[in-house]
Amino acid sequence: MSDHTPDLIPLVDLRAQYESIRPDIDSAIGRVLQHTGFILGQEVQRFEKAFANYTGVKEAAGVASGTAALHLALIAAGVGDGDEVITTPLTFFATGEAISVVGARPIFVDVKPNTFNLNPDLVEQAMTKRTRAIIPVHLYGQPADMAPIMAIARRHGLVVIEDAAQAHGSEYQGRRCGGIGDLGCFSFYPGKNLGAYGDAGMVTGNSPDMMEMIRSLSNHGRLTKYEHSRVGWGYRLDSLQAAILAAKLPHLDDWTERRRALARRYSEHFKGCDGLGLPYESSDVKHVYHVYAVRSRQRDALSEHLREKNIQTVVHYPVPLHLQPAYRGLGYEPGVFPVAERTARETLSLPLYPEMTERQQDRVIEAVLQFVHS
Ligand SMILES: *Cc1c(COP(=O)(O)O)cnc(C)c1O
Question: Cβ(292) to ligand 1 under 6 A?
Fold first, then answer.
């Protein structure tokens, strides 16, 4: 029996989640197929209201993806040609991409060694006359240090757009991420903490003017069916995804608690392990563990060891944005952001999803401890 391969432990298991709420999902999909209101309409409005309420903002505008959310948020914030936007290099490429596509230039700032989020102490020295906005990213579901970021932005008249694509329901000093800055951008990519069955996204905010502009731009700048007041995009949230997301939202807090319990369990078992860096959570935040990432100087060997045990891992993210081939033109050299670069070399995301059983997690824990103690 010793050469028998154990079952795969996947990084995430979307099928297990579907099985756990199948009647809710099937009836939401069935309802849309029956009323055939596939574009906009009540399904989208209902989910927008529910998500605005959940996040603690006045308004939420459904859009086609998290990337579309960032793109439209930047335009609504008035960011365009020749402007500069400060953000973190340790994020998914879309954060930088949205800045570039509106004609602005991403200005990267290194991250904090404990949270891997934008280091507020380095923001002011990166500012110029052209700086218009800051995009903090709540990486892995861990809130960025919003109080000093908001204070700097207010002092200099900058807009703050939170990239909350990984942070549904996370909290900073008692407030939900996505409702702290001027605008918040969410992704409902299937693997996110609140995931659609396709692409979907949302912008959250409290400014009626900016939110009206985002709604309009996402729907071809429409005034009425055949009148267009501006040139926009076809960036709408589709009704099937909205109905699915509305059915899932009531489960999100339970899923988050389960993620947090599993994360605590990992950390209890790994505490004190030589050479293994664990996630940090300060007392004034609620981390929602979109990702449970450890750090190791032998990251690639650890990943290979787990792969041999049929345990899936992934690296978020091996190449920081300032060193991406697409950004060669920005002129950043390796070594300029030592914390982000070291994190990119050492971080490894372990399997974590609400439906993961303790038995499955025990296999991951055992395999990691075996590697650490070998
Ligand atoms: C997923 C993600 C995005 C992009 O969202 P999509 O819905 O895939 O377009 C942007 N920023 C971060 C940090 C993300 O994790």
Answer: no
